Structure prediction request, 84 residues.
Amino acid sequence: MKKRKKNMFAQVMAWLALFAIVIWIVWTWILVLFSSGQDSGYWGETQTLNQEELQRIINESSVEVNVGEVDQQPEDVTSTWAAQ
Prediction:
């Protein structure tokens, strides 16, 4: 009788594991199907810029870094930056 109980327990655990694997695969496919539509617009369109537009974007995103005079002591080191 004990051998039958052990065998039954092993079968129940095997079925639960199989069920979990099937649910995991189905859930993964659901995520793939619903997330694939969100990224399609990102790669689908390209934008052509002329030289003036490109230079304007570069100028708008430039960052200026100013470093003050450095003393011998590291705790007195200061730096400032400003984004335009």
User: Anything to note?
Assistant: Residues 2-35 form the longest helix (34 residues). The first strand starts at residue 63 and ends at 67. Residues 4 and 10 are 10 Å apart (CA to CA).
